[in-house]
Amino acid sequence: MWGQAPPPPQPAYGQPPPAQAGYYGAPPQAAPAVPAGPNEVRTLWIGDLQYWMDENYISACFAPTGELQSVKLIRDKQTGQLQGYGFIEFTSRAGAERVLQTYNGAMMPNVEQTYRLNWASAGEKRDDTPDYTIFVGDLAADVTDYILQETFRVHYPSVKGAKVVTDKMTMRSKGYGFVKFGDPSEQARAMTEMNGMVCSSRPMRIGPAANKKATGVQEKVPSAQGVQSDSDPSNTTIFVGGLDPSVTDDMLKQVFTPYGDVVHVKIPVGKRCGFVQFANRASADEALVLLQGTLIGGQNVRLSWGRSPSNRQAQPQQDSNQWGGANAGYYGYGQGYEGYGYAQPQDPNMYGYGAYSGYPNYQQPLAQQPQQQQVRAVLFN
């Protein structure tokens, strides 16, 4: 799930890891206390798995313990894609505890990443905590998940992980990715402080992305609009519903600009909706998925395809409803990120996040502001 190419198979990679430092040279985290209860708990939760880390890889990692019983990795019910975590069952609780003490925080084989383990009961609860995510564009070709994560984590301790989106066929980076935070104030600070900072050899451009809610499920919106606009390659217009009344055309443009060249933005007077038109379909595709549910001006927006130019010509009587009606249909998420192209770099002056060096427009720490103000704060800086 996390965009890094799988390592070449090596016969010895399943050996138990030696005692070693975890991230930043710190010793591996001490194992949590064994849960009490009448039933023996012998299952561990494992998280932060990359997309290629399947059951075979995980089994090979733990098989040398001699106590591995089963591996179950969680997949999306609709797409079948791995979700980055799962459960490992051992033959006894004592065996599970030994693995937790030995492996947790140690480096995984053939990858710059440590094991993240916990007792299954605690792991399930932890996975339900909310994520606060940002979009990172203009990444150099050599930036991996680990490099992107460490670029942010050295400044923001709550960083949970990072994903560089890769082409499914070539496994090459598409030039953008995502960073997940556990603290909304750190996410908001990073939106301003890290925009234009260099990662590897290129300055990054930062934009908002949809956050995972505390239930662990992204909010989806009803599908009431036809599929015609979705399948029309000439359609580059996105409908934005649920807008905060304070949001202006310029504010809306600033949110969408990091994803591509925005050629037109319109918020009808007195309506809590708007329309954003991109210069190309790939940028619109990317923005539609990645900004779904994003906070803009204190409200979570609902995105769908607007009517394509050909559709508007065929149905002129509905054109006014598109630009003025608050009840236009909402079309749900696309599945996965693989089909969405990388938006070409734009003029950094269009992004509206403040100057690249010195951050002269950064007036006060965003950490002191409530979560619902995070995008509003970015817009006004």
Explain what the structure shows.
Keywords: Nucleus, Repeat, RNA-binding. The chain is built from eleven helices and 16 strands. It is an alpha+beta fold and 381 residues long. It has a domain at 40-127: RRM (RNA recognition motif) domain (Alpha-Beta Plaits), CATH 3.30.70. The strands form five sheets. A four-stranded antiparallel β-sheet has the order 2-3-1-4, with helices on both faces. β8 (198-199) and β9 form a beta hairpin. α5 (184-193) runs parallel beside α11 (374-380). The longest helix has 11 residues, at 93-103. The two termini are 34 Å apart.
Tally of individual helices: 11
* CATH domain class of one domain: Alpha Beta
CATH homologous superfamily title of one domain? RRM (RNA recognition motif) domain
Pick out the low-confidence regions.
1-5, 8-15, 18-38, 122-127, 214-229, 313-381
> What is the global morphology?
elongated
Largest sheet: 4 strands, antiparallel
Mean of residue pLDDT values: 68
CATH architecture of one domain: 2-Layer Sandwich
Counting helices, strands and paired strands, the structural category is alpha+beta
**Distance from first to last alpha carbon:** 34 Å
Identify the strand order in the major beta sheet: 2-3-1-4
Organism: Oryza rufipogon (Brownbeard rice)
GO molecular function: mRNA binding
Subcellular location: Nucleus
Protein name: RRM domain-containing protein
